[in-house]
Amino acid sequence: MKILLIHGHPFDHSLWDPQAKVLRSAGYDVITPDLRGYGSDPAPVGDITYLSDFAGDLAAEFTGQAIVGGVSMGGQIAMEFYRRYPERVAGLVLSDTSPVGETPEGHRYRNDLADRLLAEGMAGYAGEVLDKMITPEHVTTQPEVAAHVRRMMLATDPRGAAAALRGRAERPDYQKTLADVRVPTLIVVGARDAYTPRPDAELIHKSIPGSELVVIEDAGHLPGLESPAEVNAALLTFLSSHFPIEA
Question: Strand 66-71 to strand 2-6: parallel, antiparallel, or no bridges (unpaired)?
């Protein structure tokens, strides 16, 4: 079974490295691409990249069906992918994300931030949000994780980040889409997530019939990096239950 794992903003495919390694060892075919405008993806970036643009790009990454997972913006792209290509989704993994459409305040914030990144680059923003992407304690107690998160943010092209921010500001509300989901779904959230806290995960859980919710207690917005053993265990339990590897 293929598993497509979608990174969030402003990161790259290596955000999923701890999970990809374990899942591949278990026998799954894991796809972890860089999104348009992030990492090493060469696709041209215009002024705005909609979530539907990302979903279209990802549809070309594999044939047939896949379990589609994403964290933060990647989770919203996964929801958009399901909205556009439901027949290609065997299962969903939604981590630290929100299904709610953008608010007027959020619309202004994302467009203002896009302007700032284009004018200033990524360094100032990266310094401001590091202790929100992961918990403040983990910045010091998990220096290798903090360095990884910082490195991904600093390596992101401001043009790609700005275009994605503008597109995300236009995102629809996905609650109706979630109510129509009829595939196995795992929801993961860090208990100390400052951006998409537990109530967002509980809203997704309530919206998708039969979905499973796992709360990672000692983690913020990126539990896959902060508490990889727990996230890996949750993924393997979910996958072995719904998508076991055939002997």
Answer: parallel
